[in-house]
Amino acid sequence: MRSIRIAARALVLAWVLAETAFAPAASAAVEPFAAPPDRTRLVEEEQRVWSAGDDLDRSIRRARNLYRDEALAAYLQSVLDALYPDFRGAVVLKGIVRDADPNAFVLPNGSVYLTLGLVGTMASEAQLAMVIGHEAAHFVYRHGYQQMSNAKSMSAFGVGLTVFTGGIGAIGSVALAGAFYGYSRDSEREADRVGFERVVRAGYPPQAGVEAFERLAADAKLYDRKQPTFFASHPSMLERTEAFRELIAALPAGQGAGQAAATGAVAPAVPAAGADPARATRYRQATARARLEYLKLAAETGRHRSIVALLEAPFQAGEVEPAAAFWLGEAYRLRADEGDLERAVAVYRAVLERDPGQAAAWRGLGEIERRAGRTAEAADAYRRYLDGAPGAVDREAIEAELGRLQPSNGSGSGEPEPAGQGETR
């Protein structure tokens, strides 16, 4: 994935550099937008950088890898508008990418994209708002343009031009968004600070910045990555969380607890979000379908550790709905670490007890029984699955598996399969 991002970045750099090779060099210092910009009044070089963003927008749409949920899109745009009311219509949530990796990016034209992984990983609207606020700050402060302008002095021109020769179609996916990762240390710090200020001003608890970054760092640690993808560049995660704590400590008295302040540069424009149960309910309702889709995608792409980390404790506390708990069972079954299959069985049975309509749990039980060599039990579970899901897309495969089993002897005998082998899915 990272190699694709690097190549994608080279593509965009090459596009811009080829278009601006003979333009005057821009200053490294770029003033932020004070209001929604009129792109026709920008210098020619920045107009071309903006156009590169337009091209990437079109490439992302052509990739057809976007998650469609109009209600969720409207909700996320409302969060963005609450953070940047002075840039309403200029910075726009363009889509949710079907990627289980928690990530977000903004293009130089103001198009913001989130991944399903980010929506599925963030625990609150406040945490999600922090990431959105950070990305939008990159646009308002023109970091994409600054990055591209500064790149003209680098040897990346020749390398990027070579890669660009292959065209966007050579990479052909939303990974092109990676062209805009890797901002400078100063740009990242600036986006963190501005995003934080916008979050507090909108009435969210200031602690959201620390919480969001720590959640992303914890997910990265599950896969032995030093930094989560979203923060794959410097400064370090530790440095950034400490910076957030310093920003919280510098707030007016009482504001650090998420309470409204009467004065201050970042005085909230609305009541504090931390004490607003209506906002929490809105978040759960708006993201419910996307969270289930994320869990499915995470299971399919091997992010089993993320599912377990996200759901294990809430499930044990009885706080996970059956449709989501099913994916915890799947994560245990597919991960298959020591004790996982027993955990999966317990989850599947709990899911079926609470909601017998979750027929896919029977399929999971059938897989485990088959691997253990208990053919009669496996066949019974598979039949229950097909009875409960007559339109199952894997019906043919399950029926074929039933044909290979011999449950009629009732012995449940047979040699157990090694863990991880013979999976139906």
How many helical elements? Answer: 17
Q: Alpha-carbon distance between the termini?
A: 23 Å
Low-confidence stretches: 1-27, 153-181, 257-274, 407-413
The largest sheet has its strands arranged as 1-2-4-3
Q: Which class best fits the helix and strand makeup? A: mainly alpha
Task: State which percent range the strand residues make up.
Answer: under 5%
Largest sheet: 4 strands, mixed
How many β-strand runs? 4
How much helicity do the residues have?
55-70%
Mean of residue pLDDT values: 81
- Globally, the shape reads elongated
Number of separate structural domains: 2
- Rg measurement, Å: 25 Å
Q: Order of SSEs, N→C?
A: HHEHEEEHHHHHHHHHHHHHH
Oligomeric state of this protein: single chain
Notable traits:
425 residues, mainly alpha, Serine Threonine Protein Phosphatase 5, Tetratricopeptide repeat, 2 domains, 17 helices
3D architecture notes:
This protein is mainly α. It has two domains: 2-278, no CATH class; 287-409, Alpha Horseshoe (Serine Threonine Protein Phosphatase 5, Tetratricopeptide repeat), CATH 1.25.40. Helices cover 56% and strands 4% of the residues. It contains 17 helices and four strands. The chain has helices spanning 2-19, 44-63, 70-83, 116-121, 125-140, 143-151, 156-164, 185-201, 208-221, 237-249, 277-300, 304-316, 322-335, 340-354, 360-371, 375-388, 395-404; strands at 66-67, 92-97, 104-106, 111-115. A four-stranded mixed β-sheet has the order 1-2-4-3, with helices on both faces. Helix 1 crosses helix 7 (156-164), helix 15 runs antiparallel to helix 16 (375-388) and helix 16 (375-388) runs antiparallel to helix 17 (395-404). The longest helix has 24 residues, at 277-300. The radius of gyration is 25 Å and the shape is elongated. 44% of the residues are buried.
